[in-house]
């Protein structure tokens, strides 16, 4: 997804998030297990 970032928080989990630099906030969009497919 455009505008999102990913962070590996554990070998089996990836955190998909978005940063709002105007307001200084981070929005967590999804916690994804690495066995699942992500578009």
UniProtKB/TrEMBL annotation:
Domain of life: Bacteria
Organism this protein belongs to: Escherichia coli
Protein name: Type II toxin-antitoxin system RelE/ParE family toxin
Pfam short name (any one): ParE_toxin
Keywords of the record: Toxin-antitoxin system
Organism taxonomic ancestry: Bacteria, Pseudomonadati, Pseudomonadota, Gammaproteobacteria, Enterobacterales
């Amino acid at each position: 997804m455009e505008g999102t970032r990913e962070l590996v928080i554990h070998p089996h989990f990836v955190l998909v998030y978005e940063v709002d630099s105007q307001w200084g906030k981070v929005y967590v969009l999804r916690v994804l297990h690495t066995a699942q497919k992500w578009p």
